[in-house]
Backbone:
C-alpha cells in the first residue's frame, strides 16, 4: 500500500470528474508557454553597443567616437617612445619595477625581445584599438540617417578616419618592420593576413592618398565633428594628411613624392618649427598626463640620456636643453648617465605627432637624395634653418650627397630627440651597427617580433 | 482494487453473515511517546482504502471502517509510522523518528516525496539542527558541518556575514559557484555588492574585477529563526529541474507555518559575548631589533618613548562584543486558517570597536483554505539591518586597519592626547587607532520578501487527482553602502589623500518570479502510482547599483553636496528568464521509484534570448527492504539509488555585449571600443552529474549509513581568453574548458543509547571532493592572488583548478611543463563532522565538531608583517631546516626565490557549536509554560597549525578560484551565550 505523501487532502470526493490523465496537460502547457513566454532581448543597460552605434549614430555619437580616437591614440605611446628611444640608443629607461627595459630592449647578454611582453603587446594592441574605433566611425558615417550631416561631411569624415588609420598602421609597422602588419581587421572573426613590408607601406600610402583626394574634393567643408588634430576643416586637415604622407614617402625612398607631399602640407621653410599636430594631455579628472615626463633628478623610475648624445653634440647647441645635467649620476644594471631626458618640462606638455621641424628635415633629406647641385643647396638651406634655431652656425662641411645626408641624419638626431625617430632613421639607412654598445653582449635590434596572440 | 473488494465482500456475505452490513466506528487518541502530549494532524488511514482522517487538537480521531478486522496506518511527519489492528477506543503512542526516513523532502518544483523513496542524496537540515544548539548570525554560517558535500568558508570575521558555499566542488571558473537560494518558492537574491572602498585602498587596479572590499552577501538577510527546514540539492542530478541557475546546486528554504489549535507563543532570548578566536601576540623588541628593522630613526623614537610597549593586538581585536538576540514567535489557527508570525531583533557588537551587526526581521506566514478546493498561502518578510564591518583586507596605500596594524611596531604611541588629537604614525601612512575610531564602513539593508501560493484542487477521486498551483514572489531590497574617511585622518590630510572621502553607494534590487504548475496523480492500483507535473516559470532580475565617490570634503560634513569633487559610477543588471518543465514519477509499492523529467529554459542573458536550452533528469531508487521476499532482522533498510541530471550556469552579465566605454579627453567624453569582445552567441555553461548511492539501515534503522558517489562534469566553461589584438580587442569570452569533480559522501547516523532517561544520538559525516581540469583549449595560465612570486593559482589541463603554484627554489617540486613549483591546492583532502546529541532526563547536550583536513591558503599577512619586522614569530626558529635563520628573515630570504613559505596548510578542527540545556519541569510554571535555559558556545575549541588568526579566510570574497588568499583580514571570533526560551 502506498502511503500518500503529497500535500493534498483527499477527503473531498465532491469534485470527482472524469479521469483525465496528466498527459494532456503537457501540450496545453507547451502551447501556453510558447505563445506567451517570448523573451525580449535586453540591450546593454550600461554602455552604448557597437551594433547600435555602427548602425545609426547621431551626430553626438559620432563626436564621441572621434574624441575617443584622439584619446586612444595616446594610449601606451610611452611604450612606443621608450622602445624606439632605448633601442635607438637615445636614452636609457631605468625602472625598479621592471628590469626588462634595460635587459630585453638593449639585448643584455642572451636576452632577446619576447613576443609576449608589454613592450610590443601594449603599443600593438593600443594602435589596433584606435583602428577599430576608426572602423566603427567609418561604418557610422556610412550608415547614419541623421539629417545634420551632409554628403560632403560624410566623405570628409571618412577621410579623417582613414588618415588616422593610416597613421596608426604606420606606428605598428615601425615596430614590426619586416614582420609586417595586418591591414584588413574590420571583422574580428576573419582577420586579414599579415602583409609584407612593401605591401604594408603601399597600403598605408594608399589610405593616405585616397583620403587626401576626398579631403581636397570637399576642401571648404567643416567636419561634422571637432578634432584637436590640426584643423576641423577638410582642406586644412588635408595638410596634416600630406605631412604624414611625406614621412611615409621618405620611408619608402620616394623622394620626389615626398617633395610633392610637402608642398601640399603645412610645411613652411620659414615658419615656426613647433607648428604641427600633437598628442595633448591634461590633469582634468579622468584624463591622461604626459607619460614621457619625469621630474629632473628622479630615481627609481626615470629616463636618462645615453652619454654619446652629449659627447657627440656640437658646442653651444641649444637643443642640449633637452638633456640637462643631473645633480648626481645614476646607475642601474651596469648603465650610468649624468643627464636627464627632459624633452617635456611639465606633466601636461604635448607630445608631437608631426611638426614643421620634421618637415624641414624631410625636405632636406628628399632634396639631398634627389641630388644635383641645386637640390643639394636647397637641402643645405633647410638644414641651416634648423641649425640657426639651435644657435649653431651655418653648415660648413662638404656639399656632397653623402656629407649632406650625414649632416641631415645628425640634425634629425638632435631636433627629433626622443620623439621616436632615431632608431627608424638608423634602420632605414642600414646604420644600426653604428649605434653605441654600452655593455659587452648588448644588441641593437632591427625590429620587434609579431605578438604571440596573433 | 475494485475486484478484490468485491471478492472480499462476497466472502464476508457467506462466511461472516453477521458482519455483512456492519460499518464500525473507531475512536481513538494519538499521543507523543516521549512527552505524552496529544498529537495533532496525525494521518489515520484505513489500510488498503482511501479512507483517511486526521487527529484534532486533542489528538482524537474518529474513523469509520468496513469491519473491525481493518488495519489502521497511523503516520505523521517526523514519527515512526505504525500499522495497528482497528479496535474501539484505541490509544496510540507515536515515537519520534530519528532516522528522518519518513521525512518529506521536496523534489520537483511542486511535489515532495518521502525520504525513504528519494533517489538523490538530498541533504536536509531542520530548524532545530540550524539554531537548536546556539544562536546563529546568518543562515549560511549556521550550515557548517551539518551536511556532506559542501565547502563552506567565511571570507573574514567581519560582522554581517560574507560566506562562500561551494557544493561538490567548483562549477565555474568565472562565476562564483554559489548555489541558488529559494525561500518559500521566492528566488532569493544572494549578491555580493562592493562598497567602492577601492577608491581609497587602491587594492585593485582601476577597472579590475578583483575587488577586495570584503562585502557581505545577501543571504545574511534571512533570519535563521524563521526557518522550518532547509533542503540542499547538491548537484545537477537533483537540481536539473531548476535549469540554468542550478549549476552550483539549490538551497530550498521553507519557513515555519502555523498549525491549527491553540495559539502557541515562543520567546527566546540569548545574551552573549564574543571575543577574538585566536591571538598571535606581538614581537618582543630590544634596541638591536629596533635598529635592524627601523633604522636609526626607529631607535631614536623607541628610546625617546622610554621603550614603552603597547598591546595593540588587544586594543584593536580585544573588544568583548556584547551580543543579544531576541525572538518572539506566535502561531495558531483553526481548521481553515493558520498563521505564523515571528520577530527577531539581533544586536551584536564586533571584536573590533565600532563594528557590529544589527538586524530586525518580521515575518508573517498565513494559510487559508477556501471553499474546500482552494488553498491560499502568503509569506511576508521584512528585514532591516545595519552592519559595521571595519576597514580591512588588502590595499596599496597602507591604510586598512589590518595592513596598518602589521606595519606598525608595538612601541609606537598611536593614542590620542587629551584633546582628542591622534599623532601621525611615524612609519606608515595611517594611524590604525585613529582609523578605527573615525572611519565608517557600513552596509544598510531594507529588504522585503513577499510570496503567495494558490493551490486549486481541480478534482480528487479514488484513482486520480489533479491540482494546479500558482506561485509568485517578489524580492526587493535597498542596499546602502556608506564609507566615510574624514579629512582629519593621517592619510587624507596635508595632501596625502583626497582631503576626505565619502563613498555612498545605493543598490536597488527588484526581482520577481512566478510559476504555474499542474500536478496530476494517477493510481491505477494500490501499488502503482504515476505522478505527472508540468509547469511554466519566469524570473525577472533588476539590479541598479550606483556608487558616488565624493572627495575634497567640506569639514566634517557627510553629504554628497559638501564636496569639491564627485565621481559617479552606475551598473545596471537586467535579466528575464522563462522556462517550462515536465516531470514524471513512477512508484511501484514504494519498492521502485523512478523519476524522469526535463526542463527547458530561455533567458535574455544568453546570446539568443529565445533559444531553449534543455536540462533532462532521470533517477531511480530501489528499496530492496520493501520487497515482500525480504526478511532480515538485522538490515531494516536497503536502498540502491542512482540519479543523473544536467543543469546550467549563466555567462557573466555583460558577456553578450560589446560596448563602447567612456574615456575622458580634453574636457570631453569619448566612446572607445571596449577591451573584451562580447559573444553574441553565448550560452550557459553546462553541467551533468551522475550520482549513485546506497542507504542501509540496521536494527530497525537504529543505525543508518548513507553512502554516495558522484561525478560531475562542467563543460563549455567560459573564460576571458586572449585573442589577436589586431582585432581591436584584447580578450573575448569563449567556451574553452571542462572541469570534472568527483567525490564521495558518507553519513552515519546512530542511536547508540536509547533508554527512558538517557539517549544519545550520533551523526558522523565524511565527504571528499576532487576536481580536475579535463579540457583547456587555451594555453595554461596563472590566475588570482598576486603572481607567481607569492603563490598563484594555475588553470592547467590535467590538474586541479585550485592548484597553487609559484616560483620554485632548490628542493621544490616543479611541474615540468610550466617550470613553476607546485605547492598545494585550495581543495581540502576531506572533511568530517560529528554531531552528538546527548539527553539525560531533563538535560540536553549538543555538540557539533568539524574537521577539515588539507586545503591550502596563501598567507600574505606573514609577508607584510615580516617586511615591517612585526611578525609575532619573527625571532622564533621553527622554519629554517638548517636552524640558522629565524622565521622572519627566513621567509624574507625566500622572497624572489620560492613561493613556498606563503603557502600554508589550512586544516583545522573546531568545536563549532556546543550547547547545554535544561528543560525545567512544567509544574514549576503552573503547567502553563515550557521553559528551557542553557549555555552555548560557538567556535569554542579551535585547533590549527595555520600561522594567522583563522584558516577560514578569503581576501577576494566568494571568487571561484582564488578564494583562499589572506591579507590581514578582520579576525574571526568565538562566542559564549546564555539562552532562555519560553514556550506556551
Residues:
Amino acid at each position: 500500500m502506498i502511503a500518500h505523501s503529497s500535500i493534498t487532502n483527499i477527503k473531498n470526493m465532491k469534485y470527482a470528474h472524469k479521469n483525465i490523465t496528466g498527459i494532456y496537460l503537457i501540450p496545453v502547457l507547451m502551447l501556453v508557454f510558447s505563445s506567451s513566454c517570448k523573451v525580449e532581448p535586453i540591450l546593454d543597460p550600461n554602455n552604448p553597443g557597437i551594433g547600435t552605434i555602427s548602425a545609426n549614430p547621431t551626430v553626438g555619437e559620432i563626436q564621441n567616437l572621434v574624441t575617443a580616437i584622439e584619446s586612444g591614440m595616446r594610449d601606451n605611446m610611452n611604450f612606443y617612445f621608450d622602445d624606439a628611444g632605448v633601442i635607438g640608443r637615445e636614452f636609457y629607461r631605468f625602472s625598479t619595477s621592471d628590469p626588462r627595459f634595460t635587459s630585453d630592449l638593449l639585448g643584455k647578454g642572451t636576452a632577446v625581445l619576447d613576443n609576449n611582453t608589454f613592450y610590443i603587446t601594449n603599443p600593438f594592441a593600443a594602435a589596433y584599438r584606435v583602428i577599430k574605433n576608426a572602423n566603427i566611425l567609418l561604418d557610422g558615417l556610412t550608415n547614419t540617417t541623421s539629417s545634420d550631416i551632409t554628403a560632403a561631411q560624410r566623405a570628409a569624415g571618412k577621410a579623417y578616419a582613414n588618415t588616422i588609420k593610416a597613421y596608426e598602421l604606420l606606428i605598428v609597422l615601425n615596430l614590426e618592420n619586416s614582420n609586417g602588419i595586418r591591414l584588413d581587421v574590420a571583422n574580428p572573426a576573419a582577420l586579414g593576413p599579415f602583409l609584407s613590408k612593401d605591401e604594408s607601406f603601399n597600403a598605408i600610402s594608399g589610405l593616405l592618398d585616397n583620403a587626401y583626394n576626398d579631403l581636397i574634393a570637399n576642401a571648404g567643408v567643416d567636419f561634422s565633428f571637432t578634432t584637436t588634430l590640426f584643423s576641423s576643416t577638410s582642406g586644412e586637415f588635408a595638410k596634416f594628411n600630406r605631412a604624414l604622407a611625406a614621412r611615409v614617402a621618405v620611408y619608402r625612398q620616394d623622394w620626389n613624392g615626398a617633395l610633392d607631399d610637402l608642398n601640399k602640407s603645412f610645411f613652411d621653410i620659414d615658419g615656426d618649427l613647433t607648428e604641427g599636430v600633437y598628442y595633448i594631455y591634461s590633469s582634468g579628472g579622468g584624463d591622461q598626463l604626459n607619460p614621457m615626463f619625469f621630474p629632473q633628478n628622479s630615481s627609481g623610475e626615470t629616463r636618462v640620456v645615453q652619454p654619446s648624445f652629449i659627447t657627440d653634440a656640437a658646442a653651444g647647441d641649444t637643443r642640449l636643453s633637452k638633456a640637462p645635467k643631473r645633480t648626481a649620476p645614476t646607475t642601474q644594471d651596469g648603465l650610468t648617465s649624468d643627464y636627464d631626458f627632459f624633452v617635456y618640462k611639465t606633466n601636461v606638455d604635448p607630445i608631437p605627432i608631426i611638426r614643421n621641424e620634421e618637415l624641414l628635415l624631410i625636405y632636406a633629406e628628399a632634396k639631398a637624395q634627389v641630388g644635383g647641385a641645386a637640390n643639394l643647396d636647397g637641402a643645405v638651406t633647410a638644414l641651416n634653418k634648423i641649425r640657426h634655431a639651435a644657435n649653431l652656425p651655418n653648415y660648413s662641411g662638404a656639399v656632397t650627397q653623402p656629407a649632406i645626408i650625414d649632416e641631415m641624419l645628425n640634425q634629425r638626431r638632435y631636433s627629433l630627440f626622443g620623439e621616436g625617430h632615431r632608431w627608424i632613421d638608423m634602420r632605414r639607412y642600414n646604420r644600426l651597427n653604428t649605434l653605441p654598445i654600452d655593455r659587452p653582449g648588448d644588441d641593437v635590434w632591427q625590429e620587434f617580433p609579431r605578438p604571440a596572440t596573433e | 482494487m475494485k475486484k478484490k473488494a468485491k471478492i472480499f465482500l462476497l466472502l464476508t456475505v457467506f462466511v461472516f453473515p453477521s458482519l455483512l452490513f456492519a460499518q464500525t466506528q473507531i475512536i481513538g487518541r494519538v499521543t507523543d511517546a516521549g512527552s505524552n502530549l496529544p498529537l495533532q494532524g496525525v494521518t489515520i488511514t484505513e489500510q488498503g482504502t482511501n479512507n483517511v482522517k486526521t487527529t484534532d487538537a486533542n489528538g482524537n480521531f474518529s474513523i469509520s471502517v468496513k469491519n473491525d478486522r481493518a488495519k489502521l496506518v497511523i503516520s505523521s511527519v517526523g514519527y515512526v509510522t505504525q500499522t495497528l489492528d482497528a479496535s474501539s477506543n484505541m490509544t496510540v503512542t507515536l515515537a519520534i523518528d530519528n532516522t528522518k526516513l519518513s521525512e518529506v523532502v521536496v523534489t520537483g518544483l511542486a511535489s515532495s516525496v518521502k525520504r525513504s523513496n528519494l533517489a538523490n542524496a538530498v541533504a536536509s537540515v531542520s530548524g532545530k539542527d540550524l539554531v537548536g544548539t546556539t544562536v546563529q548570525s546568518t543562515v549560511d554560517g549556521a550550515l557548517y558541518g551539518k551536511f556532506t558535500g559542501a565547502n563552506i568558508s567565511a571570507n573574514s570575521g567581519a560582522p554581517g556575514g560574507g560566506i562562500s558555499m561551494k557544493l561538490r566542488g567548483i562549477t565555474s571558473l568565472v562565476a562564483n559557484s554559489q548555489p541558488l537560494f529559494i525561500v518559500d518558492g521566492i528566488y532569493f537574491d544572494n549578491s555580493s555588492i562592493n562598497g567602492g572602498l577601492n577608491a581609497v585602498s587602491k587594492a585593485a587596479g582601476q577597472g579590475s574585477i578583483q575587488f577586495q572590499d570584503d562585502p557581505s552577501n545577501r543571504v545574511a538577510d534571512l533570519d535563521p529563526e524563521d526557518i522550518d527546514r532547509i533542503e540542499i540539492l547538491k548537484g545537477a542530478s537533483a537540481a536539473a529541474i531548476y535549469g540554468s541557475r542550478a549549476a552550483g546546486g539549490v538551497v530550498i528554504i521553507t519557513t515555519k507555518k502555523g498549525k491549527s489549535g491553540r495559539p502557541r507563543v515562543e520567546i527566546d532570548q540569548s545574551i552573549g559575548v564574543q571575543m577574538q578566536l585566536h591571538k598571535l601576540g606581538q614581537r618582543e623588541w630590544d634596541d638591536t631589533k629596533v635598529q635592524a628593522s627601523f633604522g636609526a630613526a626607529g631607535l631614536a623614537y623607541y628610546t625617546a618613548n622610554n621603550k614603552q610597549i603597547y598591546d595593540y593586538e588587544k586594543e584593536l581585536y580585544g573588544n568583548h562584543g556584547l551580543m543579544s538576540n531576541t525572538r518572539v514567535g506566535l502561531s495558531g489557527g483553526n481548521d481553515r486558517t493558520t498563521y505564523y508570525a515571528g520577530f527577531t531583533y539581533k544586536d551584536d557588537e564586533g571584536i573590533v570597536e565600532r563594528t557590529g551587526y544589527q538586524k530586525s526581521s518580521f515575518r508573517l506566514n498565513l494559510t487559508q483554505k477556501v471553499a474546500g478546493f482552494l488553498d491560499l498561502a502568503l509569506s511576508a518578510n521584512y528585514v532591516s539591518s545595519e552592519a559595521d564591518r571595519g576597514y580591512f583586507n588588502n590595499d596599496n596605500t597602507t591604510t586598512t586597519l589590518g595592513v596598518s596594524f602589521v606595519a606598525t611596531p608595538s612601541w609606537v604611541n598611536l593614542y590620542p592626547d587629551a584633546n582628542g588629537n591622534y599623532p601621525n604614525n611615524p612609519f606608515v601612512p595611517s594611524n590604525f587607532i585613529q582609523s578605527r575610531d573615525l572611519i565608517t564602513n557600513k552596509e544598510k539593508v531594507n529588504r522585503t520578501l513577499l510570496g503567495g501560493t494558490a493551490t486549486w484542487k481541480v478534482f480528487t477521486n479514488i484513482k486520480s487527482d489533479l491540482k494546479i498551483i500558482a506561485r509568485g514572489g517578489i524580492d526587493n531590497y535597498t542596499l546602502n553602502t556608506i564609507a566615510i574617511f574624514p579629512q582629519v585622518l593621517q592619510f587624507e590630510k596635508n595632501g596625502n589623500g583626497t582631503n576626505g572621502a565619502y563613498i555612498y553607494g545605493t543598490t536597488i534590487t527588484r526581482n520577481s518570479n512566478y510559476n504555474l504548475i499542474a500536478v496530476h496523480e494517477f493510481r491505477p492500483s494500490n501499488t502503482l502510482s504515476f505522478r505527472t507535473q508540468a509547469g511554466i516559470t519566469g524570473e525577472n532580475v533588476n539590479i541598479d547599483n550606483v556608487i558616488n565617490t565624493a572627495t575634497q570634503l567640506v569639514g566634517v560634513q557627510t553629504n554628497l553636496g559638501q564636496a569639491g569633487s564627485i565621481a559617479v559610477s552606475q551598473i545596471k543588471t537586467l535579466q528575464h528568464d522563462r522556462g517550462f518543465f515536465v516531470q514524471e514519477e513512477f512508484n511501484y509499492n514504494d519498492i521502485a521509484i523512478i523519476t524522469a523529467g526535463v526542463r527547458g529554459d530561455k533567458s535574455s542573458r544568453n546570446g539568443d534570448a529565445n533559444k531553449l536550452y534543455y536540462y533532462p533528469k532521470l533517477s531511480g531508487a530501489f528499496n530492496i527492504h520493501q520487497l515482500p521476499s525480504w526478511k532480515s532482522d538485522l538490515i531494516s533498510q536497503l536502498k540502491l539509488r542512482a540519479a543523473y541530471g544536467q543543469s546550467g550556469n549563466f555567462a557573466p552579465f555583460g558577456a553578450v555585449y560589446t560596448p563602447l566605454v567612456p574615456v575622458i579627453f580634453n574636457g570631453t567624453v569619448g566612446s572607445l571600443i571596449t577591451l573584451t569582445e562580447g559573444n553574441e552567441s553565448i550560452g550557459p555553461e553546462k553541467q551533468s552529474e551522475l550520482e549513485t548511492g546506497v542507504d542501509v539501515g540496521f536494527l530497525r534503522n537504529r543505525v543508518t549509513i548513507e553512502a554516495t558517489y558522484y561525478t560531475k562534469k562542467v563543460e563549455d566553461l567560459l573564460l576571458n581568453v586572449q585573442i589577436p589584438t589586431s582585432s581591436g580587442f584584447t580578450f573575448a569570452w569563449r567556451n574553452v574548458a571542462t572541469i570534472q569533480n568527483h567525490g564521495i559522501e558518507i553519513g552515519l547516523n546512530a542511536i547508540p543509547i536509547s533508554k527512558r532517561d538517557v539517549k544519545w544520538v550520533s551523526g558522523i559525516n565524511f565527504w571528499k571532493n576532487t576536481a580536475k581540469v579535463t579540457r583547456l583549449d587555451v594555453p595554461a595560465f596563472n590566475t588570482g592572488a598576486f603572481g607567481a612570486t607569492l603563490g598563484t593559482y594555475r588553470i592547467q589541463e590535467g590538474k586541479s583548478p585550485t592548484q597553487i603554484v609559484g616560483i620554485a627554489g632548490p628542493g621544490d617540486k616543479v611541474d615540468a611543463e610550466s617550470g613553476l613549483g607546485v605547492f598545494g591546492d585550495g581543495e581540502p583532502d576531506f572533511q568530517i563532522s560529528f554531531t552528538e546529541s546527548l539527553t539525560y532526563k531533563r538535560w540536553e547536550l549538543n555538540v557539533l565538531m568539524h574537521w577539515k583536513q588539507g586545503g591550502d591558503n596563501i598567507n600574505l599577512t606573514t609577508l607584510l608583517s615580516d617586511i615591517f619586522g612585526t611578525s609575532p614569530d619573527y625571532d622564533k626558529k621553527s622554519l629554517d631546516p638548517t636552524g640558522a635563520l629565524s622565521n622572519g628573515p627566513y621567509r624574507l630570504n625566500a622572497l624572489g626565490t620560492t613561493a613556498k613559505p606563503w603557502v600554508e596548510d589550512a586544516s583545522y578542527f573546531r568545536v563549532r557549536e556546543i550547547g547545554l540545556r535544561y528543560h525545567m519541569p512544567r509544574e514549576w510554571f503552573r503547567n502553563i509554560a515550557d521553559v528551557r535555559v542553557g549555555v552555548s558556545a560557538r567556535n569554542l575549541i579551535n585547533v590549527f597549525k595555520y600561522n594567522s588568526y583563522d584558516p577560514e579566510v578569503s581576501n577576494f570574497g566568494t571568487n571561484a578560484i582564488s578564494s583562499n588568499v589572506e591579507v590581514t583580514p578582520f579576525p574571526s571570533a568565538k562566542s559564549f551565550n546564555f539562552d532562555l526560551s519560553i514556550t506556551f
